[in-house]
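We emphasize that the prediction below concerns an isolated chain of 346 residues; any contacts that depend on oligomerization or on bound cofactors are therefore not represented. The input was used exactly as deposited, without trimming of termini.
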Amino acid sequence: MSTDSAADELLHDILKQVSRSFYLTLNVLPLGVRDQMGLSYLFARAADTIADTDLIDRAQRLKYLNLFRAQFTTAAIDWAAVREIQTALIPHQRDSAEGILLQRLEDCLKLYEGYSAEDRERIQWLMSVLPNGMEMDLTRFPGESSGQLAALATLDELDQYTYYVAGCVGEFWTRMVCAHRPLMAAWDVAKMSAIGVRFGKGLQLTNIVKDIARDLHHGRCYVPTSLLDEAGLKPADLLEEENLPRFRPILNRLIGLAMEHLDEGWVYTMSIPVSEIRQRLACMWPILLAGETLKRVAAAPDLLSPAVNIKAPRSVVYRVMAITTLTGSNGFVATSYWDSLRKQIA
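Result of the prediction step, given as a token string:
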């Protein structure tokens, strides 16, 4: 990767404009992988923005998503295609950060061009897989409201979706850190990549259960109909808040599946050498905050209300960061913290 300080400054400027919270988290990563992870985040966020721009029709969004994905399959960037994406989508952005990201898409791709061939190849792989989840959203869920509600059919379909949108990131992360951090050279990349996939799936399942009501009212039910059938429920039944008691056994099953994945994520984290404390912290924080979120999801009496926004409060975020910064190098103490938290998730 280019070590040009101007390029680094440009990337960090874009990240701060698009997501200051992600930028602050990114800074905990060690040098050598920080910029690649940051730029990859921006590309993933851009793809997601294209897919979510609901002021243009789905066929157009699919067209521009595929046009963007194509920039990672050829030797040279098609700058005319990039400008076509910008012209079509920038006027329709409700979120200023999304608009800024699309405006600066050319800057991001120029930074990408300056990376090593090996890093470009890793990013190309990520961008060949991750947009499949966004394409799945656009094709599997044809509507934008609860009146056009559609659902995934099986647990296998849900598993595939969580791989596309997050599991593949765990695989990409593993490949990148093993390539750049000498102390990671002893890792079995294939084995740890598979565990990294579980890590990502756990985080995505956490997002799915916490946002279930909001997604339902946007026409998307990620809870498979095969599970709902077992409880005598239809996707539309989840629009009624009084059906939460009937839904709760299914919810608990999904929470349990998320926890199984996150347990594997913890194994992954504790396998990181102690001297790579920055990497450890970058993995500990999302796992522990996912646990805090699942704890709140499991206890929420109004989970099916679209007005509810379930997340760990800022005070908890600060507490997690403070405790792990002090104890993250001690595997026994850190694991005791995780075990204590997971026991609170009923």
